[in-house]
Write a structure and sequence with these properties.
- The chain is α+β, with helices and mostly antiparallel strands.
- The protein is about 40% helix and about 25% strand.
- It contains 3 helices and 10 strands; from the N terminus they run H-H-H-E-E-E-E-E-E-E-E-E-E.
Length: about 230
């Protein structure tokens, strides 16, 4: 039998040994019945791999016993080669799974912590009226992944010369470079401001420069991460 066929037989033996051991472990209900989770993990990562090794050795012995190299060294050599192929296949499968999981996972900006904020100020054109009630102003962060309502900071409302300024913040939930802030003030045209943060939106302690729209209004903003000022 060709060497490649012997290796393939060893790989098949490893798969068969792994599956047979796991099935046997499950059918006979071996392990700690009071802790089925630990027993299942032991079957997957301890006993079944031992069965896989036994399957490799058995398959290699069956295919080499009638060959020219039916010696202990030939058996060991074929078994090690088959185990090497099995390990490589497992590594490739794990790498593929991790790659697919990463590509399809929800791109949370701060996966294991509180959500960062976009802190902003909008400076309206000179002479523009600002409603006295924040309820007449709607703020919405729009991305290619979601929309998120913003909150106004009425204490941050002020005037810069003859230009009224409104202030607020909105959650930066997802990692994306496609962001824009829609500002709707009752009785005025809707305004949409591009947000030029990177996808990772790193924390910045100070506002950036004012960015102007064609109607003369301006916006400045910064990303604020939890625990930072």
């Amino acid at each position: 039998m060709k060497n490649s066929s012997r290796i393939a037989a060893g790989v098949a033996g490893a798969v068969g040994g792994y599956v047979a051991t796991f099935v046997l472990f499950s059918v006979l209900d071996l392990g700690n019945r009071a802790d089925p989770i630990t027993s299942g993990l032991s079957a997957l990562f301890v006993y079944s791999p031992i069965g896989a090794i036994a399957g490799v050795v058995l398959a290699s012995w069956l295919v080499t016993r009638s060959g020219a190299d039916a010696s202990n060294s030939g058996l060991a050599r074929n078994s090690l080669k088959s185990l090497g192929v099995v390990v490589l296949l497992c590594v490739a499968a794990a790498a593929t799974y991790m790659g697919v999981a990463y590509m399809t996972a929800t791109p949370w900006l701060n996966r294991n912590g509180a959500t960062p904020q976009l802190v902003f100020e909008v400076r309206l054109p000179a002479g523009a009226a600002v409603p006295k009630s924040p309820q007449d102003i709607t703020i919405e962060l729009q991305t290619d992944l979601n929309t998120m309502p913003g909150e106004l900071n009425s204490a941050g409302f002020h005037r810069d010369g003859d230009q009224p300024v409104i202030a607020g913040e909105v959650e930066l939930a997802f990692r994306t470079s496609h962001r824009q802030l829609a500002v709707n003030i009752q009785g005025q045209p809707s305004r949409v401001y591009p947000i030029g943060l990177t996808a990772w939106a790193p924390h910045t302690p100070e506002f950036g420069t004012w960015r102007r729209l064609a109607d003369g209004s301006e916006i400045r903003y910064r990303a604020k991460w939890p625990g930072k000022t």
